[in-house]
Design a protein that fits this description.
Blueprint (H helix, E strand, L loop, with lengths): L1 E6 L7 H15 L3 E6 L15 H16 L2 E7 L7 H10 L6 E5 L5 E5 L5 E7 L4 H5 L5 H15 L4 E6 L7 H19 L1
Parallel strand pairs: 1-2, 1-3, 3-6, 6-7
Antiparallel strand pairs: 4-5
Length: 194
């Protein structure tokens, strides 16, 4: 099993990074083939420019090669303003591009449907929220999760190959709760990867 572990948080002291490191440890302990992408460490530019720098163009190609290599892609991000971090959103825009991650098949002159080109990949996403679960799941209809499933992952990876796990009130929980969250990450990885 080949695992690609992607992190979109700027701070190595963050709980997101603790999840990212837990994935790395799990893969090494279980002798899974492992690569990672740290978007901040790579100084990835998420802005879609009319003319990309050679550095960023080469980085996009390298990321696409890592995605091709992987059987499972694991993404970790906080939820800020009902979306992932800017750097991860830019990663989706630039790396999961038409022709690489999906293409449109025409139905009529005006309509087409997306055909995923990365159907052989599974995606596991760990999202951390500052909010508790109740308002996000009720008032806001879990919009971040729905957008990822319906608007990004289904286009690129197809249906039913994605799992999204959410951790709630992360800035407000104590260390014991964070340990439980990390234990949950290990249980999820055991179920999904072994």
């Amino acid at each position: 099993m080949r695992v690609l572990n992607i992190i979109g948080h700027p701070s190595k002291k963050s709980f997101n990074y603790a999840i990212h490191n837990k994935v790395k440890e799990f893969c090494k302990q279980n002798k899974l083939e492992y690569k990672y992408i740290d978007l901040h460490l790579d100084k990835f530019d998420p802005v879609l420019h009319e003319k990309e720098s050679n550095y960023n163009s080469n980085l996009v190609k390298e990321y696409q090669e890592r995605i091709k290599w992987a059987d499972v892609i694991i993404i970790t991000s906080p939820v800020w303003w009902f979306r992932l971090t800017t750097i991860l959103e830019g990663f989706f825009d630039k790396v999961l591009a038409p022709g690489f991650a999906y293409k449109f098949n025409p139905i009529t002159k005006l309509y087409g449907y997306p055909q995923p080109l990365l159907k052989d990949k599974k995606v596991i996403t760990f999202l951390t929220h500052g909010a508790p679960a109740l308002p996000v799941k009720t008032i806001y209809a879990n919009s971040v999760k729905l957008r990822l499933l319906l608007g990004v992952y289904s286009f690129c990876f197809g249906w039913f190959k994605q799992s999204i796990y959410q951790f709630w009130s992360v800035p407000f929980v104590d260390d014991n709760k964070r340990v439980k969250y990390l234990d949950k990450v290990t249980k999820i990885l055991t179920k999904k990867l072994l």
